[in-house]
Amino acid sequence: MGWRTVVVTQHAKVSLSTGNLVIQTDTDRLHVPVRDVGVLLIQTLQAVITAPAVVALAEVQAKIIFTGRDGQPICTTSGDYSNVQSTVTVGKQMTWSKSRIATLWTRVIASKLQNQIQVVEFVGGETASLRQELDQLEVGDVTNREAVVARRYFPRLFGQDFSRTDLTPVNAALNYGYAILLSAVDQAICTRGYLTCWGIHHTRTDNAFNLGSDLMEPFRPVVD
């Protein structure tokens, strides 16, 4: 899996030549080794990409993300069944014990709350009450400390009247960032041979990315 994120924001053609992505714009011609690419983000409707380029990116488990007219991610591609996929890996995933799942979810939420506290400290907000909630975290977060902290956390960042359900530029930016983050987490899951739909806490039948939705939680504060 590569380490570069390549973002295309203007009229361009993305093609393949001798192991390199060739990005031809109106003014430039750029070459990027395919093996270095982790994510190709096409953030315009004025770009085209050739089939050989798509195949080459899939072979190195790179993800291609397309945005719609509103700039929101609308479609992603990846090699869902990479060369590390196996019945052994998936079999283990689908038979994780309840105690293991509860322990993992507790660690995920603990990391998320700790990172949220650091973000509030960074902006000079009060964190004592958030730390109290972290101290009350139980195995499996059965008392839903995650939700309690969220109700206090976002107003500390964006104002007391802020709500995650409002149609505001801040929420649009957060949703966009979360979508990009989810794509990156899903990419890592796929390249390691696990199923993105089989989660540990998120279990919606209409969500193909339940495990990604779980494992991205500690990293959300980076977007915030």
TrEMBL record:
The keyword Nucleotidyltransferase does not apply. The keyword Hydrolase applies. Coiled coil: none annotated. One of its GO terms (molecular function) is metal ion binding. It comes from the Bacteria. PANTHER family: CRISPR-ASSOCIATED ENDONUCLEASE CAS1 1. Homodimer, forms a heterotetramer with a Cas2 homodimer. This is Type II CRISPR-associated endonuclease Cas1. The gene is cas1.
